[in-house]
Amino acid sequence: AQKITQTQPGMFVQEKEAVTLDCTYDTSDPSYGLFWYKQPSSGEMIFLIYQGSYDQQNATEGRYSLNFQKARKSANLVISASQLGDSAMYFCAMREGGAAGNKLTFGGGTRVLVKP
Amino acid sequence: GAGVSQSPSNKVTEKGKDVELRCDPISGHTALYWYRQSLGQGLEFLIYFQGNSAPDKSGLPSDRFSAERTGGSVSTLTIQRTQQEDSAVYLCASNKKSGGQETQYFGPGTRLLVL
Lengths: 116, 115
What we know:
heterodimer; A: mainly beta; B: 0% helix
């Protein structure tokens, strides 16, 4: 079974509008962390935002916020006021605790194209 | 400060040749990871080093792949007898082992093309 699922392979968004990128995860570990990374066409992986499994509040970082619904095992990324520079691939990733070690498991990504 | 650096940026090789990819982590980061990203795909974990502990090699796809980390800093990923399916971007990441968030910061990657 996929540990991280991103169901939207690609999406268009109008500049200045908000966009939600879906991410669902599968783990039986009570302690885990969820990350979102942005990968522009240049190829670098840029860290955006983090949510810990025990965090009581949804994470926010500037225009990025994470809609964390623990019972549904979803961690959707919301980008507000989209800008042209937001056009990129976006990856959701999970780090589990215990024997899984510190490695990140990534979803397949969502390509976002912001239209002017 | 300086981020994670990787070299070479691009590597073209012939099938059957060996290649070495280098990663220089962020200074002070004790954990180092290698991932592979095939075209249009997400990242796939390869290997993880933490301090002086034995590396987690659980993601290496075959015994043609190996990695070492000398002096707790620079790491080299070696692929022997390269195959065309090894063509991918190889990404290195590092983080500080501190408990909690431990965000991994990535290098720019090495684009490997096996002809």
